[in-house]
Specification:
Elements lengths: L10 E3 L11 E6 L2 E10 L1 H7 L4 H10 L7 E10 L5 E8 L4 E5 L6 E5 L2 H4 L2 H19 L3 H5 L3 H22 L5
Antiparallel strand pairs: 1-7, 2-3, 3-4, 4-5, 5-6, 6-7
Helix pairs in contact: 4-6
């Protein structure tokens, strides 16, 4: 699958997504890939700190930031190559602005795609379906052809089940159901 330089959907940035906070992450090993679950709070101050040593990236973030900066919270699911540790995909199941990323290993392509809850339903359910049914094609689109070729469904299934259970628990803790 060829990656379009200017896709018809989403936005392609040069800046890479904010790195995960290792202290807030839970990994789920699945052979060629490792899924990493993180509950994130994004705000302008946190982004300033995360990109303080990368002024060009910070300038791009500021350029595309809404007035007042980016602020949101929710579950993030990072999909890393187990061997190379590169993050190829990210699903940001955020409260206000849910979206996902294709992160090319070249380091100069972060394809941000907004999520449409009208068409896609619940974002976490969408993300789990992608991991179960579309992972190979999504990895190839993100430049992870070798990772996609090495996927083992026998390892993916149990890891996704465990990931979903933990992700739903994190969501429930952060956003309890009304009484």
């Amino acid at each position: 699958m060829t990656v379009e330089p200017n896709p018809k959907y989403g936005v392609v940035y040069k800046v890479q997504p904010e790195p995960p906070d290792p202290a807030a992450c839970t990994p789920f090993e699945a052979g060629a890939v490792t899924f990493v679950l993180e509950y994130r709070s994004v705000d302008p101050e946190r982004l300033e700190l995360a990109y303080a040593d990368r002024p060009e990236d910070l300038a791009e973030i500021r350029k595309f930031s809404p007035e007042g900066g980016f602020s949101d919270t929710g579950v993030s699911i990072h999909v890393l190559g187990t061997g190379d540790r590169h993050e190829y995909l990210r699903f940001d199941v955020f409260a206000d602005d849910p979206h996902y990323h294709y992160v090319h290993p070249s380091g100069d392509r972060n394809h941000w795609v907004p999520f449409d809850p009208v068409a896609g339903g619940e974002m976490l359910g969408f993300a789990m379906t992608c991991l179960r049914e579309r992972l190979g094609s999504m990895l190839r689109f993100a430049g992870g052809e070798a990772i996609a070729a090495a996927l083992d469904p026998r390892r993916i299934g149990p890891a996704v089940e465990a990931l979903e259970k933990k992700a739903r628990a994190l969501q429930a803790e952060a956003r309890p159901e009304p009484a």
